[in-house]
Amino acid sequence: MFTELTGVVVSFLLVVILAFPLGRYIARVFKGERTITDFMNPLERLIFRFCGIDPHRKMNWKEFLKAMLTVNLLWFVYAFFAFLFQAHLPLNPDGNPNMTPDLSFNTAISFLVNCNLQDYSGETGVTYLTQLFVITFLQFVSAATGIACLIAVFNGLKEKTTNNLGNFWELFTKSITRILLPLCIVMATLLAFNGTPASYDAKDTITTVQGDTVQVSRGPAAGMIAIKHLGTNGGGWFGANSAHPLENPNYFTNMLEVIAQMLIPIAMIFALGFYINRKKFAYVIFGIMTVGMLCLVIPTILAEIHGNPLIAKMGIAQPTGAMEGKEVRFGPAASGYWSIVTTIISTGSVNAMHDSFMPVSGLMQMLGMLVNAFYGGCGVGILNYYIYIIIAVFISGLMVGRTPEFMGHKVEAREVKIAALVTLLSAFIIKGGTALAAYYFVHHANADWAVKPSAWLNNPGYHGFSEMLYQYTSSNANNGSGYEGLADNNPFWNITAGFAMILGRYLPIIGPLAIAGLLANKKYIPESAGTLKVDSLTFGVMTFAVIIIITALSYFPPLVLGPIAEYFSIH
Amino acid sequence: MKKYILPSLKITVAFLILCSVLYPLFIALVARLAPGQGRGETLSVNGKVVGYANIGQKFDQDKYFWSRPSAVAFNAAGSAGSNKGPSNPDYLKDVQAHIDTFLVHNPGVRKEEIPAELVTYSGSGLDPDLSPAGARVQVKRIAVVRGIPEATLYDLVNTQTEKPLLGLFGPAKVNVLKLNLALDRIK
């Protein structure tokens, strides 16, 4: 057990050690200073010339959003039709079929919005062409979209008064050429040398030692698994995601993958400090987010290494902890840690099946997604935190009776309305969706649909309710992990979760960008003795309190019906 | 909106070439130097491939060390866990059935000696490993079936046990396929 815990602690320490210099590097890249990757300059110039883009053209927040949304819409159309006709396209050595329209809709959105909810299974549901030309492609560009939007907000914070948030195409391109692609090449190589397949060969058929004939799915997976983590995407090459022994062959790759998914989100916090030259502000944010993570990680690891009390009652030994849905080479401690990292960061890759975790862990996983800002996804994590900051600024302003200010700009009704709308919307999507699903499950259990509502759930009782709640939580948070027992590949789930993913992606990006754009346009007010110090520990704690209060008030009732009730039923 | 459509199309083409063509091809090329040439590492007996080193196999005959229960019957054309929740009564009956089966095939083993991984489904359904305790608890059965002294088998489990990473991180484990291939080599 000791070596399992040291593995977890060292995984976390390593990511902080790596993220700090990476954050400084990211700030230098977007400031246009000299970096070690300047050899990419000719490639970038070539891309800009080919696309007819002037990377120096300034954009205000509306132009920035138009460029971002146009290209996103184009990707959606492209992805939708590619999945729909994949069987007839090349690079399909396993002869996998086309997707149904509803599955294609869900999958296209899922990868477009960096969610990576998968209602199909990688071995049979997609082809090598769609894995590489749609899924891997979207994993790169959706992460780069998130980073570009965050840098735009940084630009708004950096200047006293400006309407220039930067050029979307330039920020987007550099996010890939300077950050994602170089890191992916290193990581994919490490994975390939540890046994992850990387060739284009089709699945293999073998006869085992006992004489069974089985097949082994393979493919050019290593590259996709690298961006899946570095881009906080999470969608796996294989159905079992990073629990699959080819996708995550040993404890080293497990550490690599868990470090990779936290790396850019944490680096972006440090980058914020370097970029707007307010390092203390960044350290306070990092501290608060880390405290938030620990509040979720510690109970999860304890619950998992303690094991399932109902199995303990049967009289067998659980020396390593709860093993259902887990892999021996990782063990419950590393799997518990991963399950929280992946839910707070919006990756959604799994190295153990979340449906089989203890109720306490399920509660913590869902809380991680509901907050969605303890580090959070590539770029979008800090955008979510930015919303909490605006609300905290507003409430602090009310408490001291001054017009709230954030970094020299007055926060007024319009900005607070946007922030409140973004926050409340999540609660509406998650609880509304779950209520709708529960209604059909109870009142139209035998409706003559593709899958009858009565057959949706893989588990009865409280846990079954959690399966539905988790699906909308994960969709709205653009997380993509799931309680995989849920029969989600049918029109009801594909379509409702699809819409939850769209709203859960674009509003939390548009909101902060609009606020940043509006604030940056306002007259700059120099700091005075009465100014709220946003880089103080007090304000950090205030933000943390806002996060807890909003989450607790919004989601306590459904969480009681799901994981909390299940906890009391087995203890 | 219109002035953004053409750059959108072109930048999509540019990054499709970069991220979906060049990048995976480059990784595939580098992987040719890796063990298994990027196709997955295989294990052979007398020149015949008997399995992939990292993919678990079904072992349920008494003369072999058993693998963990699998939700996909160890056919790596797919992969999945059971996705059963910890409080599911049907699932708990399933675990009880695994315990009963194990006890029938392993006379002399007490219930509290069975480690949990032997009676629970793995996450991928393809878990290639057991904990050292999960292998040791099966030694008595195999010693009787094969007529090999128990001490020899305990030694075998020890030599096949892979230590934690650098001796510091993660659990110790035994690869069941490698263990059984080594078992078959004992005269």
Short note summarizing the structure:
The complex is a heterodimer of chains A (571) and B (187). Chain A has helices at residues 2-31, 41-51, 61-84, 101-112, 122-125, 128-158, 168-193, 222-230, 251-275, 279-306, 309-313, 331-344, 359-371, 380-400, 413-443, 461-476, 491-521, 537-570, and strands spanning 204-207, 213-216, 405-406, 409-410.
Number of strands of chain B: 5
Instruction: Please state the CA-atom Rg of chain A, rounded to the nearest Å.
Output: 23 Å
Oligomeric form: heterodimer
Strand content of chain B: 5-15%
- Strand numbers in spatial order across the main sheet of chain A: 1-2
Give the structural class of chain B.
mainly alpha
N-to-C SSE string of chain B, H for helix and E for strand: HEEHEHHHEEH
Mean residue pLDDT of chain A: 93
**The number of domains of chain A:** 1
Largest sheet: number of strands, sense, barrel closure of chain A: 2 strands, antiparallel
Name the shape of chain A in a single word: globular
The portion of residues assigned to helices of chain B is: 40-55%
Low-confidence stretches of chain B: none
- Could you give the count of β-strands of chain A? 4
**Rg value of chain B:** 22 Å
Tell me what the structure shows:
The complex is a heterodimer of chains A (571) and B (187). The mean pLDDT of chain A is 93. Chain A has 18 helices and 4 strands. In chain A, helix 1 (2-31) packs parallel to helix 12, helix 10 (279-306) runs parallel beside helix 18 and helix 16 (461-476) crosses helix 17. Chain A has helices at 2-31, 41-51, 61-84, 101-112, 122-125, 128-158, 168-193, 222-230, 251-275, 279-306, 309-313, 331-344, 359-371, 380-400, 413-443, 461-476, 491-521, 537-570, and strands spanning 204-207, 213-216, 405-406, 409-410. The two termini of chain A are 24 Å apart. Chain A has one domain. Chain A is mainly alpha-helical and 571 residues long. The radius of gyration of chain A is 23 Å and the shape is globular. With 187 residues, chain B is mainly alpha-helical. Chain B folds into 2 domains: 1-39, no CATH class; 42-185, no CATH class. Chain B has a 3-stranded antiparallel β-sheet with strand order 3-5-4. A two-stranded antiparallel ribbon of chain B has the order 1-2. In chain B, helix 5 (150-160) crosses helix 6. Chain B starts with a helix and ends with a helix. The model of chain B has no long low-confidence stretch (mean pLDDT 94). The interface between A and B is large, with 121 and 107 residues.
